[in-house]
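Hey everyone, long-time lurker, first post.

I ran two proteins through the pipeline my lab uses and got sequence/structure pairs for each. Pasting them in order. The first:
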Amino acid sequence: MNHRVAIFDTTLRDGEQSPGASMTIDEKVVIAKALEDLGVDIIEAGFPIASEGDFEAVQRVAQSVMRATVAGLARCHPKDIERAWQALAHALRPRIHVFLATSPIHRQYKLNLSKQQVLARVAEGVAMARRLCDDVEFSAEDAARTEPEFLVEVAQVALAAGATTFNVPDTVGYTTPDQFGDLVDRLMQDLPQFQQAVLSVHCHNDLGLAVANSLAAVKAGARQVECTINGIGERAGNCALEEVVMALRTRHDLFGLETGIDSRRIFSTSQLVSRVTGLHVQRNKAIVGQNAFAHEAGIHQHGVLQCQETYEIMKPEDVGVASSQLVLGKHSGRHAFKDWLNKQSFELSDAHFEKTFAAFKALADKKKTIYESDLLALVEGELQSTTGPWRIASLHTSAGTGTPPTAAISLMDERNVVHEEAACGDGPVDALFKAIERATGVRAVLKSYEIRSVTSGRDAQGEVSIEVSHGDQTYRGRSFSTDIIEASGHAMIQVINRLCRKAQNEADHLAEAYHAS
């Protein structure tokens, strides 16, 4: 049996389906390159038939990635498969990923197909994909709720038609480790074809069991795990890449399996995905959370000081977390700061670097102690604040007992024209948001507003996270500052910039379509 588990990352496809986590094409290319550096075997770049933007993203990733396999998703429809191949045609290692639902509930209510009709579509779709591409994966959507004997039939048909990988998704996160392990074991036992073909799993996290189910499947013989950075994805998300990889590595005594992942790049890749999507990592998240290697209890601290292994089963350095939090200070120069940026996978232009370095020095003057989390927050805030047509020139708020809260804002647009507005509100943040809406002309509904401290102490930076709805879409914004009001303003500007970019992209596509016709 092969002792290596392939890592199939679907952050750019399934991960992007998290509400508010949409990415630009350039952002997808940056993440794809980081995933390749991380050592991911297969990068699923998107669903080419879904939109022109998805098609172009898959095409750009396929042209940019040199070592990893690039996959494009397609339904068992000729147009989907043709479109996927058009997007992947220039990839060095292309894979067409075809899927069709197989469970009784999907056959009856979504597809209105009999078992025999499903089998026929599987055969036709896989055969067509194989004529175009040597590497074809077939996924039996909702496999975990499919009758096991029928799933065996589906696998037989898919493999006979030319599939090189057969994927078993727990599409709705319904199964448990024992059940899922037994299902994979049955497929391995009933189908000798898996001596050559790869059996893959794709687990969702609706019951919080995605990683556990994936590991049970691996123990039963699966040799590809589909996952995402930080576990992002539909609903409660997917199997988290960092968790399944470090579980296999840390418990090598139990699994005896390897991956091609360079674990030292896990933390920086996690931060990159969080920065691009606006979905921050929960503090107690395994492997990459802020508290993953933190010890507050006196007993724990004493134990770690005596022997690190008393309370740490992994070294923080193994996943790219610095063992020391205090890394830079007010006396640090440009070279040290640039070296730290490179280690964290930040890519800045010279002009942007100078602006960010100036912000770092200003923060160092404000804070007595600077932690790595302060630096990450600062750089992420600077990156986000400059992406789009609007930026804050100045703001002022006023609030107090017996006086109505007010805010005045001065914004610069992409032509460096100043727009000034003022507003009253229920509080200074509400007033600020209203003033921003007036200045930009963009109306949005605030759905949630969260504040958390990035570090400890009275001079700690605060992180403001907001969720805004516009039409039928949800967008997230996040910013950092020692001034919570200022952070709130930048978070809202970040959301408005995303709305403006989306509107501009749609207008560009319409113009292209018009000229093409």
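...and the second, right after it:
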Amino acid sequence: MQATLSRNQFQRRAIWLIVAVLVLRVAYAFFLPGNLVGDEAYYWHWGQSPALGYFSKPPFIAWLYAAIDALAPSSVFAIRVASALLGAGSLFFLFFLTQDLFDARTGWCATLIAVCAPAITLLSFVLTIDAPLVFFWSAALFLTWRITQGQARWGDWVCLFFVLALGHLTKQMMLVFPVLVVAYVASVQAKRHFLTQSRFWLVLLGSYTSLAAPLIWNARNDWITFEHSAHHFDVEDQPSLSALLAERAETFVTFFASQVGMLSPVFGVALFFVVWNALFRYRRLPAQVRFCVIFSAVPLLGIALLALRQEINANWPAVFYVSGFALLAAWYTGNFTCTWLSEKLRGLFRYGVIGGIALSGFLLFGHLVFDAMGKRGHKADPMRRFYGHSELALAVNRTVSERTTEGESPAFLAVLGHRDLASFLAFGADHEVPIFLWDASPVLDSQYEVWPNPVESGFTGEDGLIIAPFEGISPMFKGAFGSVEKVGEFFVDYRWDRQQKFHVFAASGLRDWPKQPKAASSAQ
């Protein structure tokens, strides 16, 4: 990279890069929007019933989907554009944060690293909770650095308050941000005076008041979000010590392999070396490097230790890479010396860019190759999770239309199986028939068990249709109706080598809705 360019030139480079990437992502979404994945359809369905809280997450993602749907009803393209805009916003905050921490050249480098990361590419296409979370986290980092540098006005404090508050309403991971801020300020002597400022604590602690909404909702619903979150930390028993150690080793290696792949091999390996080297030298580092370490290396170390205990979701550490990108860029530009890596390795930067672009390109366009080969949905096809859902919805829409034409219009649809099936059918429905999910699981698995069931919704005595990916229906569920009769079946192509068979049953005279062994209140 050219070090002779001016600050303004690097700024223009970064801004044009972000704008160009945004335009390309929007264009891609326009021509190849694809289907929604399961979580997207699930959150979209949440947005159809705005509430103060939901089964597994705080409510912001549902509110966001509700807003998108109000502007463009049931539009995959609109959802993709929202994700792309959040991704672009995150990149802007990353650039200006890194520029303030180090210099504009390093900011440009950090932006380029992030643009090339496959995880960021996916994050800017699929609208799950991580897209708004990374956006709020990036904005909070930028504002926090400005404030702790003494450059902030009252507006920055107010913005930080709202960014944190919305972040808390997006995902539980944001709850650790104020804690990390306190850790950073306490560890740098020149910043400790913030600990005596009332506005500092008012903003950090006050941001948690946004949690009043989901807390009220959980109090009315048996604290189901807390119970669900606790299950993330369950550990399976192993028959022997050797099996336990083997399972832990596999989990640990799998976690790091997934992270390196998400960041691209060159940048992924280099980032871990850089941030942990900085962690071990923390007391001898300047304030801006300590800032990056507190918000990357420290929580990443916690995640790594947790990976020794249990399986880790690949997206959990996503926000910790924002400041990690800034520190990695500082090493590449010579603003930070990593004693674990030779300076000669900085020359690998171009290969990191090439590798990241190649992997990101494969994520977006690899499915076209598999389509051309006649192996759509192959296990190596990066888009295999997106297939079949619109076909499923179309098949059910036809079934409902045919039954209505024959004078047997169903009052409701009962879907058996995974929550994704109900979500896809809800998103793709071209009818007004309400959709309910029944799952024989001994625990609550989704929002569908929290929402009112057909009986509570006033459908007692009504006739409905049952859609199931299997033919054998539980006798307990059959007994909830006067009669259940199979009336059809259809196939959905999910992969080149797999068709999923679905069965359609006509259910008459709803008597009751079988209760799960453990049920939450349906109050909203």
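Reply from user beta_strand_b:
Welcome! Quick read of the second one: The chain has 21 helices and five strands. The chain has two domains: 7-226+251-363, 389-510.
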